[in-house]
Amino acid sequence: MYKILKSENENELKLELNVTTEEFKTAVKKIYNENKRHFKLHGFRAGKVPFEYVIKYYGVEVFYEDASREVIVNELEKFMENEKPNNILPLEPKVDVKEVDYEKGLKAEVVYQLEPKVELGKYKGIELKREEIKVTDKEVEEHILEEAKKNARIEEVSKKSKNGHILNIDFEGFTKNEKEELVAFAGGKGEGYDLKLGSNTFIPGFEEQLVGTKKDEEKEISVKFPEEYHAKELAGKDAIFKVKVNTVKEEIVPKIDEELAKDLGYETLEELQKETRENLELEKEIKQKRELEAQVSDKLLEDSKVEVSHDEVHGLFHQMMEGFARQGISMEMFAQMLGKTPEELHDEYEKEIEKNQKIQYILVEIANKEKIKIDEKEIETELERKSAEFADKPSVEQLKQYEPLVKEVTRNLQVKKAMEFILANAKYKK
């Protein structure tokens, strides 16, 4: 049986478990039956050693760990079914076995982490900075120009190269040894490489020295590798590149006219301009909403009080890392991709997780205080979206049977609606 204990920590729920001798013996026998095929004694066939002989020669303690887990899980399931607590965090509870004995039963203490208490600060009528959304004619023109560039023709030219031209080059890099002799270095050779001048693809000074070159021209280029260059053996070193220009090519960008509009799938240039403007306005609205939400988050964190446990933050971080691991990406690989050490990655992400959790708890509390309702249809819509993430595409009705998922979906909707409530009741200034 279980008993709820008073805890000094308001963010913990503490249980006392008392398992009778009879219940514990039943669990031990069950574990024996599940594992008896593994026991061997002289005079008995494999898997046929009686229980009495097993405990005599192996000791009953051999079953304690599995039997303890069995009875503890059973008691915790009873607790969940009877009490139906809705504020327990999805973390493994801490279990402290105080006593375990075949003739006395089991006593244990279990601690669950609870959702933290929130002291709300001001969230109605908060001041937010919001700029007026404007899309200029120049922005529309620049966007259309970018689309036109995607339809650009590439043509070879005989004139001298300039920024924007595409050079097809062969190159080989050299450094000097102690005898001042040129020595080719690993990774410094390429053939038939397309380089757009002004793209800053190569190290500083390389592209600039190719401006003004022509087809079939050969040139030596002197450069210095940056001190922070990724290849340590080259960092800060002087180098010479021998370059041959195979071709010089130019992008021929179509004119912004009716013909371009038709090529892009529009009836007229005016229609293209109108839709481009609308899309840019939508992009700015989305960006503005994100910026406003960031302002709200900062103000909520500043004015409200909530403490998130380290266990929760640590658990969520490891869930995230496990997700990457399933994709074949280790923590070390992920850290390297971001140019960080695993320790830096761990610290930065845990800080971000802690911040996000605090904001979520505050928003859920606001949703509860303002009695913001989440109806069944909204939950079903979100569950339908969730269904696509599963390989077997379970039905909404099947997903509704999984309580943790329904709780997660409901919580996310509360967070979203609470943020919308705050934005609707905010005071805006430019």
Structure at a glance:
This protein has 430 residues and is α+β, with helices and mostly antiparallel strands. It has helices spanning 21-35, 51-57, 64-83, 137-150, 258-263, 269-303, 310-326, 331-337, 342-369, 376-387, 396-400, 403-424, and strands at 2-5, 12-19, 94-101, 105-113, 118-119, 127-129, 153-156, 166-176, 182-196, 218-224, 238-252, 305-306, 427-429.
CA(first)-CA(last) distance = 62 Å
Helix content: 40-55%
How many DSSP E strands? 13
How many helices does DSSP assign?
A: 12
Please mark out the parts with pLDDT under 50 across 5 or more consecutive residues, or reply none: none
Mean pLDDT: 93
General form: extended
Strand content: 15-25%
User: What does the largest sheet look like?
Assistant: 5 strands, antiparallel
Order of helices and strands: EEHHHEEEEHEEEEEHHEHHHHHHE
Structural class, from helix and strand content? alpha+beta
Radius of gyration: 34 Å
